[in-house]
Write a structure and sequence with these properties.
This protein is mostly helical. The protein has 47 helices and 7 strands.
């Protein structure tokens, strides 16, 4: 083997693979990861590839991981983006701002993680317009997690683009960057002959014996070969010969070289090592005038190099950076961090990080800066960064009460936004170990944790009420810690649904003015307590805040606003914002309520399969992360979707799961949710007695209790079940209660519900007019199931009055709507009513289709109570054939069980079936 054009020895195979990679990348996009031990030559191969890429006419942009910046989100991506300022300026405004905000280069609403990743890809596309682009990322194992995700995202989308991504990382590092399935090239140590060839070429003056010893000690590692031989060469010149031991440590050898540099050069090198990105502007601002000139000795010794664009300083090898830091004293590092903080005044998060590292003793001024940086992190969607900075701010807090507040905030963000229950519990153990009095925020966090993990609303409520009662009450709207505590108290009272919990909450909220934001706890509490009390002014404020969500990516604000909107049928306006929360992997905790809202929006809109899918995802994510309370919400939504589709078994399973978990914990609200789904399923199956039993488990007829929204939402089900079971007085009382609640102005769905129950219970002479008025309400088609249900009730009422022709119009419309929705049991109900009017429908296997003679005979025998084998024996058929006949008979008759066969057969009109009208 020979020496390559870049000075590499024994790497002919790797060079060939890299050349082929560059050819593919320049035409159609490609990605390749170099893996191997430290010092094996990955960086040298990256340099060779970059040199070859330039020769091929490609543009090269480089970045690298930095072990001192692994806790700064997008620090690695910042290096790549910072090399493309002109291209960044040419991006569309929204795309450019997503990158600028995420990287701390600008201010604005926090972009979602997916928006940042797409913006990075767009930037690289822009850079590759004129000529192919090669992205080179060294030390992937030391790249921060957010940037690593960005690298993976871009790498998987390079097909068809003239962009290459070439990365390198250590084999010994964690597997997170290597588990992506991206192509890898394993870099092996040099063989013995190549090792000696490299040494002979670079150190021809050394005796063969020394070279052989070095080759044996270095075990084919090129970096070790060169550094060991270099150390040996110096000693040989002084007559000392080769030594082992500490001399084997390559980092130590770099340390010796760094130690020989002038003091001022080492100072600037330390700034570069701790700054991370190598930004010349920042380094000059931190080092002072003329500081960059001090790097010349390090450049001449091949320890650092300045990029071709003159904007970035790069270390020749990561071990050089480590050696620079290792060779400095603690005070020197702190001084460097202080100077860097002074140079980063326009980047609050990086400034806060450097100030924190420069400070050893508690210092409130520094702690306040770090806490401000945490708020900035949260605004741009970096929950993990916010948690880390809040914890560091707490460490720097001289006042124990302030320390507890900052720790409690970190724990709350970990649980509510980030979804890190273990982290939250660990922080709270630290908080609870402090003998200082419990703060509002500590109570809010402890209450939230016990509520979502154990479903213990009693403990959560007690913790929060005690803390709120002990604290001061401001004259204006609540804010800060008090707002967070009230919001958590509202959640505990909401899921409990018991008077002993919600009455104290109502009393507390009564102390505050009504003109609060829709996302505020006071607004949510009032909405949940009494839907009818929501004023038009509150609705206008809510609509305005929903409209602003498109510019808000603070997951906390989005989720709180959507929660209030969910009670007032305004989830469609929140859909885009809550979907961003789900797509953004940095807000796992908020993703669970966001999934609830997506599933509910799909449920109300009649998209039941997507709703069920989102509910299943919610159940799986909540179980995986330990948020057991949210698991039950997933079961409720899945039960409702199953109830409306007519999947009675699935609905029953989900309801039983909710009752089994929530009942022993006294979570009456969740129990009511399951009863609502069970009542809806029973209505679809025309089991009106069961439907009445479940509906009245939510509330008594004629009563809409406070803090019981399911009583409002299930009111049409209770009224219909009461009417169909002959409980007309109860039906009228409940219809009056819903109408008197004044919820019709809140949304077209609630207006339709109130109008429908009024029509159901009206006098015969008013019935048709009332139903027509209900169906003519503006916006009712937005709620397809409720509109279909109203038409079904209208048609049934008309048929009972003997107005069959008019009834057919409504029943056929209801049947067709239910068929479109996939509401099998509801479609069967409408079809059965149509048959009773003498109307059938054609179409294979559909409700109303005429039975074949053999199907009719099988159905008649089954109606007498005979089993399938008995019917088979009687008709000389196989049991399987009998089963197939019945499988087709049930949908034709519009029924779901054998128990309904007799009535369905008796309702068949004599003679040929009537044609469909």
């Amino acid at each position: 083997m020979g020496v390559g054009p870049t000075g590499l020895v024994g790497r002919e195979g790797e060079r060939a693979e890299l050349a082929a990679f560059l050819d593919t990348a320049g035409m159609d996009g490609a990605v390749l990861l170099l893996t191997g031990d430290p010092g094996v030559g990955k960086t040298a191969l990256l340099d060779a590839a970059a040199e070859l890429a330039v020769a091929k006419g490609m543009r090269v942009v480089r970045g690298s991981g930095d072990e001192y910046e692994t806790d700064i989100s997008f620090a690695g991506l910042h290096q790549l983006v910072g090399s493309l300022p002109d291209e960044l300026g040419r991006l569309p405004r929204s795309t450019r701002e997503a990158l600028e905000v995420a990287l701390g280069l600008g201010t604005g609403p926090a972009p979602s993680r997916i928006a940042v990743l797409n913006a990075a890809l767009s930037l690289f596309d822009e850079a590759a317009k004129e000529r192919p682009l090669l992205l080179v990322v060294d030390d992937l194992h030391a790249v921060d997690q957010a940037s690593r995700a960005a690298v993976g995202f871009v790498a998987r989308r390079l097909g068809g683009r003239r962009i290459g991504l070439l990365g390198a990382g250590r084999t010994e590092s964690d597997e997170s960057f290597r588990s992506t399935g991206l192509p890898e090239l394993r870099i092996a140590p040099l063989g013995d002959s190549d090792a000696l060839r490299l040494l002979s070429r670079r150190f021809a003056h050394l005796p063969r014996r020394v070279l052989s010893t070095v080759a044996h000690e270095a075990q084919g590692n090129p970096l070790a070969l060169l550094e060991f031989a270099g150390a040996s060469g110096g000693q040989h010149g002084r007559g000392t010969g080769w030594t082992s031991g500490q001399g084997r440590d390559v980092r130590a050898l770099y340390g010796v070289r760094v130690g020989r540099l002038p003091h001022r050069t080492r100072e600037v090198l330390l700034l570069a090592a701790l700054e991370g990105s190598g930004d010349i502007v920042v380094l000059e601002a931190a080092g002072g005038p003329g500081s960059l000139e001090e790097l010349a000795p390090a450049e001449r010794d091949h320890l650092v190099m300045v990029a071709e664009n003159g904007r970035v300083v790069r270390f020749r090898h990561p071990l050089v950076r480590s050696a620079v830091v290792d060779g400095s004293t603690g005070e020197q590092r702190r001084s460097a961090h202080r100077r860097l903080a002074g140079a980063l005044g326009d980047q609050p998060e990086r400034r806060g990080d450097h100030l924190a590292r420069a400070t050893t003793a508690p210092d409130e001024a520094v702690a306040a800066v770090v806490e401000s940086a945490a708020r900035s992190s949260l605004r741009r969607g970096d929950a993990d960064g916010a948690i880390a900075r809040l914890r560091r701010a707490a460490e720097l807090s001289p006042d124990r009460t302030v320390r507890r507040r900052r720790l409690s905030r970190a724990a709350y963000v970990a649980a509510w936004v980030a979804g890190h229950l273990e982290v939250s519990h660990a922080i709270m153990r630290e908080v609870e170990g402090d003998p200082a009095a419990r703060s509002l925020l500590a109570a809010a966090t402890a209450g939230f944790l016990v509520l979502v993990t154990e479903g213990d609303a009693d403990t959560a409520h007690a913790l929060l009420m005690e803390a709120i009662e002990q604290g001061p009450m401001p004259p204006g709207p609540p804010s800060g810690e008090l707002e967070t505590a009230l919001f958590t108290l509202t959640l505990a009272s909401q899921y409990s649904g018991r008077p002993e919990h919600w009455q104290p909450l109502v009393d507390v909220l009564a102390r505050f003015p009504e003109a609060a934001p829709a996302a505020a706890a006071s607004s949510l509490g009032r909405v949940h307590h009494d839907l009818g009390s929501v004023t038009d002014g509150m609705l206008r404020r809510l609509d305005e805040e929903i409209a602003r969500l498109r510019d808000r990516s603070d997951a906390d604000v989005v989720i709180r606003t959507a929660l209030t909107a969910s009670y007032l049928d305004r989830l469609p306006g929140c859909r885009e914002a809550v979907s961003r929360v789900i797509r953004d992997g940095g807000a796992v905790g908020s993703s669970m309520p966001a999934l609830m809202f997506v599933a509910l929006d799909d449920l109300y809109a009649g998209r039941w399969q997507p709703s069920a899918d989102a509910a299943d995802e919610l159940i799986a994510l909540s179980e995986e992360t330990g948020y057991h309370l949210f698991v039950q919400v997933g079961h409720y939504i899945a039960a409702m979707a199953a109830a409306q589709r007519g999947d009675l078994d699935a609905c029953h399973r989900h309801c039983e799961a909710v009752w089994g978990w929530s009942g022993p914990r006294g979570l009456r609200r969740l129990e009511n949710c399951a009863h609502q789904a069970a009542a809806r399923a029973a209505l679809g199956a025309a089991d009106f007695e069961t439907a009445f039993r479940h509906a009245t488990a939510i509330c008594a007829p004629g009563v809409l209790p406070p803090f019981n929204p399911e009583a409002v939402w299930s009111a049409p089900d209770l009224v219909e079940a009461a009417v169909r079971t002959g409980r007309h007085a109860e039906a009228r009382r409940h219809a009056d209660a819903l109408r008197d609640a004044g919820v019709g102005h809140l949304s077209s769905r609630l207006a339709l519900s109130a109008a429908t129950v009024t029509a159901m219970t009206s006098a015969d002479e008013d019935m048709a007019r009332c139903f027509e008025e209900a169906l003519a309400l503006p916006g009712v088609e937005q709620w397809p199931f409720e509109a279909g249900h109203a038409r079904l009730a209208y048609g049934e009422a008309l048929r009972r009055q003997g107005l069959n022709r008019d009834a057919r119009v409504q029943l056929a419309a209801a049947r067709d709507r239910f068929e479109e929705l996939g509401a099998r049991s509801w479609e069967a109900r409408a079809a059965a009513e149509l048959r009773a009017t003498g109307m059938t429908r054609t179409g294979r296997g559909k409700a109303g289709e005429a039975l074949t003679p053999q199907e009719l005979e099988v159905a008649r025998l089954a109606a007498t109570g005979l089993s399938n084998p008995q019917i088979a024996s009687h008709l000389f058929l196989s049991p399987r054939t009998v089963s197939s006949h019945l499988y087709r008979v049930f949908p034709k008759l519009g029924i779901t069980s054998r128990a309904e066969l007799r009535d369905a057969l008796e309702a068949l009109p004599p003679g040929p079936p009537a044609s469909r009208l």
